[in-house]
Amino acid sequence: MDIISSQKLGNILRISFAFLFPLMLFAGTIYILLTLVGSQPLGHDESVYLTKARSWMQGTPADEFGLYRPIGMAGFGWIFLHFGSSEHTLRFFGVIFGSLSMTFLYLLFRRVINSFVALSIVGVVTSSFFFLQEAPLFQNDIPSAGFLFGFLYSIYCYIQSSGKSKLIYFAPVFAALAFYTRYGSVLFLVVIVLLSLTPPFLSSIKVNASGVPTQLKTILLLLVAFFGPHFIYAYLTTGSIVGILSLSGKVAGRKYFGEGIVSYLQWLPHDIGGWLLGVMVILGVLVTCLTLFIRGLRKAYIDLAWLGSIGIISFILTGLLVHPEARYIFFPVILLAGVGISGVYYIAKSVRNILGSIVSLSLILTSIYFGVVYYNQTRIFFHSKELDRYRNAYVQTSKFILDRSSSQGGCAIWAVTTYRPAISWYSRCQTFSVTNLSNFKRDYLSSSGVVRYSVVLDKVASGQVNKDLSQKWGVNLKEIYRTNNLSHADRGDIIVYELTKQDDSSNENGLEVPEREWIEL
Q1: pTM of this prediction?
Q2: Residue among 252, 269, 369 at smallest CA distance from 317
């Protein structure tokens, strides 16, 4: 009787640990990221997503949200805007989904290796400035990576259980969340699916064939339900079911084919996220190559070969197709780091059992050290953004426009590209780029009935409607606002001009460009 009771108690403790520890990890990561959330002005991508979300709620303009932008981010923005519009409130999105990403990463490698190794992997990732500087923002790269880890976890549980795990039905959910959060995730999803269907990996598992047809039917129905609306919408708006994805690829902005790979290799090991993470990524590549090309190792560690191959191929394809930015490769980098740490653990364990645990403990302690260092650097980094004169000047300028035009039925702004999304967010105005006379006339006429402004950097020559263009383009500029603390900066002061048309209704500067000529254009 005592034996039975002790066995039951042991099972209860194990089950409790299995559920409670991921919850504790989730809560702990939330606490760390919350202390980093800053009040610095919203960045470029943050502003783009949130202006679209606000447009659904309040009908404000969202001109900067192109068709290639992931609709899921605007959806999440819509949810968070119900709780407030401050920078702190909106960035809680990054806190939640950054923590969720680390939880899924832990669950994946706990299933592949064990809890201790999974914890050391999460420790290495969360202690990197790669994670600390990106997670507390309204960005999509880390959340989409988290959904991909959940996708891998559901597939691995299904395979490991010989087709018995019901978690496979969550795979389409995770895939859809990753896709709609970041359209570029489709590349990673394709790599995962194709490598999961390769003979070396499939031959290592046994799945109950009788249950497969029903499972596949349900999964396919879920995939059609989740992805069908996107492809229908893409066809209706672009004429092709992959039209939106093609647009996403065209705005990649790379200078030459493979620019990303060149930069990423130059950044390793330190500049990709810190020394500890960078070294583990390199080890992950080595471990993957060894398990792939040595038959005995491939058979013994097929799961590491699978994960590592996904990481390497995803890394290479991203580097080939888009311009270099570290956050684009968060998913493959973290996956490779996990494989590298797992490989080190197995090597140490093969020498002596206790050595594997010592290696994992050492990595946890090392990650604490690096975590403290990079945490402090990240706080300084965010604080410097809060004090950035140009960011704050644009916010002040935008709020001036908002206050001035809020009672006049709306506003339209022409400005340089870099700050346009942030200006749109803080001013609630339509925003237009300055390209050529024809486009300017079209945009000017389309914004009839609202107050029009030009936001100008007085030391920048192009990309804005300044006094040099006003006469040529047939508009009057009336200065209504100027910053007074930026004159010594390279870009000069920020000036706001109110735009009016030089037409029959304006007797101040003549009739240089009659209204009828604009309409004909």
Answers
A1: 0.91
A2: 252
For residue 454, the SS3 value is strand
The tokens of 10 are what?
Answer: 């042991």
* Helices vs strands, H then E, count in the chain: 24, 5
Strands 494-501 and 475-482, bridge-based pairing: antiparallel
What is d(CA 167, CA 157) in angstroms, rounded to the nearest whole number?
7
Tens digit of each residue's pLDDT (9 = 90 or more) over 8-57: 666 676 776 778 889 999 999 999 999 999 899 999 999 999 999 999 99
CA-CA distance, 427 to 406, in Å (whole number)? 9
Residue 459 φ/ψ, nearest 5 degrees? -110, 10
Query: What are the tens digits of pLDDT across the range 114-170?
Result: 999 999 999 999 999 999 999 999 999 999 999 999 999 999 998 888 778 899 999
Three-state secondary-structure class, residue 165:
coil
Is the pLDDT assigned to residue 1 strictly greater than 60? no
Exposure of 521 in the CB half-sphere (CA atoms within 13 A): 17
Q: Which range, 10-24, 106-120, 320-334, is most confident? A: 106-120
What is the 3-class SS of 106-117, one letter each residue? Answer: HHHHHHHCCHHH
The residue type at 463:
G
Q: How far is CA 327 from the centre of its chain?
A: 7
C-beta separation of 143 from 180 below 8 A: no
| Residue position matching structure tokens 């003979």 | 199
